[in-house]
Amino acid sequence: MNTVRNQKQHDLMTKTPMTKLILRMSSPTIVSMLVSSIYNTADTFFVSQLGTSASGAVGVVFPLTAILQAVGFMIGSGAGSRISIYLGEGNTEEADKVASSAVFASVLGGIVLGVLCKLFLAPILSFVGATETILPYAEVYANYILLGFPIMCASFVFNHLLRCQGKTAFSMIGISTGGILNIFLDPVFIFTFNMGIAGAAIATILSQTVSLILLLVFVQSRRSVLKISLAKISGGFGVYSVIIRIGAPSFFRQGLASISSSLLNNRVKIYGDAAVAAFSIVGKVSFIIMAIMLGVGQGFQPVAGYNYGARNYRRVRSAYKVTLLIGCAMMSVAAVICFIFAPNILAVFRPDDPDVINIGSFLLRVQAAVLPLMSVTVSTNMLLQSLAQNKEATFLALTRQGLYFIPLIFILSSLLGLFGIQITQSISDTLSMLTAIPFAVRFFRKIKEKEAEWVDDNTASNEINMNVFENFEP
After folding, report:
1. Mean pLDDT computed over 339-354
2. What is the pLDDT of residues 23-82, one digit of tens each?
3. 154-190 b/e with 16+ CB inside 10 Å = b?
4. Alpha-carbon distances, residue 62 vs 11, 58, 138, 149, 386 (angstroms)
5. Which segments cross the bilayer (predicted)?
6. Cα 360 to chain center, whole Å?
7. What's the mean pLDDT when you consider all of the chain?
8. H-type helices in 269-312, by residue range?
9. Backbone angles phi, psi at 402, to 5 degrees
10. Which of 24, 245, 368, 427 is the most buried (most CB within 10 A)?
11. What's the confidence (pLDDT) of residue 19?
12. So what's the pLDDT on residue 101?
């Protein structure tokens, strides 16, 4: 039975027309990423009804959840990329070992991170941008969210384990069910049960628990190529080292999002709660849009990894081009919508606060202007990471929210004030796109060389076989 399933998986990844395959693989990932980001934004929407300070609190706690995402994405994407290559090679035993070890590492990582944040919660929240009026709301919200860290981290990993074997529809169902549930539970806990901002956090944890249960059931079902078990958890550091190395770009990408968000909030808070709330809302909206591009990229990763493992280099090149075009088209549509309707989008969250709307509208339009460029950055980074090009992928992951953003936020905020802070991300995005281009060109030159070597080796092998038959005398 396993052999039949593996053959079907091989045919899907190596023979399906590329545009059809990328759309098939990325559509569920886009939906799951969108729903996931939308229900995070739902917290901001419903909490915003409690006031501007409460709205800012959700944004202030974001750096903590971003660090958790960094750990979860590092483990999940690192394991997923390695598993895709193993499956392409037909090595399911090693794939199971990596998957089981990744799940164990995610639960442990969530517990450790939750405890550390809890021990130093107040100073951490103050550092990441909580004003005196925002801090009480942020502490209440964070205290509950931290309890769910192990659950959330494991969910990230299970999500990647389904995607890396091409089971993106199962991944979508698991994530979407939890997301939709959260949207319904938020108003119930916040307003009906009169729990305020604590209700939003509790609704999120309950929803994440439901997602985790569904994802676990799918990974352990008969339709999954992978099988998780305690017996397959690695006791040595070797497997974890591979996961960390390959997943490092995801860690830096998400981890730097936490650091940059902290620095951003720290710089913005001197302009008042309205400015903090405006940046928080635009951050959530931008996260929804980026979820589309990340969904396309994550759908592309198993295709690239599987075909690379199967030495089908032409399909790797084709997958990248298709991903780039699809991502650029989607980002362009999102950019137009955000640019035209920016004030209306901000008014959905804080209709009675003109300062939030004015500050946020300009910020959203500036960021929308460079959205199409992100298709190059994300596609290239996902490509390198999925094929274990660790150093290159890690460097690219450092650029957007680190190498460019961090110095720019200090320089531009000092020179241009609030306007400088508003344009920082867009300038950083442009620079990171320009940096990604030579990496993509260099990689595909190497792919051409590998392709030529593969053809030469096969030709030589065929010639040897022909000579054997020609010289054979019965």
Report:
1. 90
2. 888 887 788 777 777 766 777 788 888 887 887 888 788 889 888 988 998 999 899 889
3. bbbbbbbbbbbbbbbbbbbbbbbbbbbbbbebbbebb
4. 41, 6, 10, 13, 27
5. 21-42, 54-77, 98-121, 141-162, 169-191, 197-218, 230-248, 274-297, 318-342, 362-383, 403-421
6. 24
7. 86
8. 273-309
9. -125, -80
10. 368
11. 86
12. 97
185-219 tens-digit pLDDT: 999 999 999 999 999 999 999 999 999 999 999 99
Q: Which residues contact 171 (CB under 8 A, 6 or more apart)?
A: 28, 29, 32, 159, 162, 163, 215, 218
User: What is the token pair recorded at 100?
Assistant: 């089981």
Q: Hey, what are 139's tokens?
A: 């502490």
Quote the CA–CA distance of 327 and 374 in Å, as a whole number.
Answer: 8
Sign of CA dihedral 207, 210, 211, 212: positive
Local structure of 387: helix, strand or coil: coil
Rounded to whole angstroms, the Cα distance separating 254 from 69 reads 6
Tokens 């990230």 — which residue? Answer: 156
Q: What is the four-CA torsion angle of 258, 264, 267, 271, rounded to 10 degrees? A: -120
DSSP-assigned states of every residue in 60-100: HHHHHHHHHHHHHHHHHHHHHHHHHHHHHHT-HHHHHHHHH
Domain boundaries, the chain: 25-234, 258-454
- Which of 108, 110, 107, 143 is closest to 125 using CA atoms? 143
With beta carbons less than 8 A apart as the criterion, state whether 165 and 90 touch: no
Tokens of 178: 């939890």
Structure tokens at 264: 């951003």
Predicted confidence (pLDDT) per residue in 79-116, tens digit: 988 998 888 788 889 999 999 999 999 999 999 999 99
